[in-house]
Input
Amino acid sequence: MLRPVALLALLLASTPAAAVETMRISMGDVEGAEVRISGPGLRFGGDSEEGDFVRVGAAEARVRRRGGGGLEVNGAPILGDAVRFRAETESPDAGVAEVAPLRAGGREVRGEVVVRLAGTRLQLINVLPLEDYLAAVLGSEMPVSFPLEALKAQAVAARTYALQKKLEAYGSPFHMGSSVLHQVYGGMDREDARTRAAVAATRGQVLTYELAPIEAYFHASCGGRTESGAAALQRDLPYLKPVDCPCGELPASHWSAQVSTAEMDAALRFASAGLRTAARTATGRVSRVAAGARSLDAAQLRQRLGYTRIKSLSFDVERNAQGFRFTGRGYGHGAGLCQWGAKVLADRGQGYKDILAHYYPGAELQQLY
Ligand SMILES: [Zn+2]
Output
C-alpha cells in the first residue's frame, strides 16, 4: 500500500482539481432490482469527473441490474458497472447551466448521484463538492453562534478530516459511510451565512504534516488539557500532543453523573464493590477502573454507560448511598482541536491560524486549491 504522502502527490499530480474537491458519500444499497432517479434536465454519463453527460430524455431514469450482468437505464444497456446522474436547469441565456437537486431512491440530494453495481446489489453514492459538504456539516459540528475565527478553525479541521478520509479510501467507490449523509442533509437547515462565510474564507485550506493531510480529530471540550492521540484514539501522531486549553475555566466544562450499583455491575460485567480508578494517562484521564482483582478499560466503561452520560474520561468517582457519583471535566475524547477552547481563544482575539497551530502543533496550513 502507498503511504499517504505518496497518495496526496498522486492525487494532486494526476487528477484535476475537481476530483480533489469532491466527496463520495454512500447512500446505502437499494432494496430491490431497480432504482429511480429524477430531476429537472436529467442527464447521465460515466462515473468520472471528466465524463460527458447526455440527456436522459425523460424526467425519470429507471436503473436496473440486467439478468446477464451490467446495468440498464430506461431499458437500454450501458457500458461499465456504474452510471452517474446530474440534474441541470438551463437558463434561457445559452451556456449557463446550474446543477439542481436530484431525487434518488426517494431522497432529495445535492450534487450528482452514482448508481453502482456491487455484486448483485445496486449501490447509491452521492458525489458532492467538498466545500458544499463542509457548509452543510459545519453547523452540526459546532454551534453557529461561535465566533467566526473558531468556525474557520473548525472548517479547516473538517476539510482536512474529510480529505484524509478520502485519501484513506483511495480507489474505493466511496469515502464516507451513509451515517455521514444524515449529517449532511440533517444539517442543511443549520447552514447559514456564518457557516458559509467560515467555509468560503478558508476555501481549499488544509492542515498537513510531511505533505499529507493530518488526522484532524476534534472534540467539544477537553476540560483544561487536551489528550494525546495515542491515549485517546490509539493514534500516536506527532501533532496530537497534549496542550493546555482555556476551556477548563468554563462552567460548561464541568459535569457530574449518578450511576446505580446495578447499572455499574452490568457495565463492568463484574461486581462493583470497592470500585476505584486503577490507572490514569499523563493528562490525568482515567485509563482503567478496577474492583477487587478485576479491571476494565475506562473507555469501554464510558461506552457502556453512554458517551453523553459519562462525558469524558477526565473524572473522579465516589461511592454514595445511591451507587456511584462521577464528577468530571470536558466532553469528548479530548484529542486535537478543542471547540470550546477555540471559542475562548477567538473571543480573546486570536485568529484561526493561531488556534489551529495551538491544537495541532507542528502541522502546516496549506492552500490545496
Ligand atoms: Zn479545551
Residues 1-7 have pLDDT under 50 and may be disordered. The radius of gyration is 24 Å. Residues 26-129 form one domain.
